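Why does residue order matter? Because the sequence determines the fold. Keep that principle in mind as you read this record.
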Amino acid sequence: MAFFVAYLLVAPLSCSELSKLSGPGATVCTNVLGIRYEGPGGYEPPLWPALLTASAGAVSVAFLVRLSLRPRHR
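Structure:
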């Protein structure tokens, strides 16, 4: 679950083309957190930042759950 939540926060969700009168426009994509991915016309933003963030989030949550469920020695 943590993987999917983190992925949805960082992955580019909506893209729009900005046109220029003198030449090809630019593509601007944003996500839930407001991070902008920009490139020349026809640009497709990379998904690796979202995958790395999601993986780190999932590993962190799994580590915290494991710590909380571990028996405590007295």
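The CA atoms of residues 14 and 20 lie 20 Å apart.
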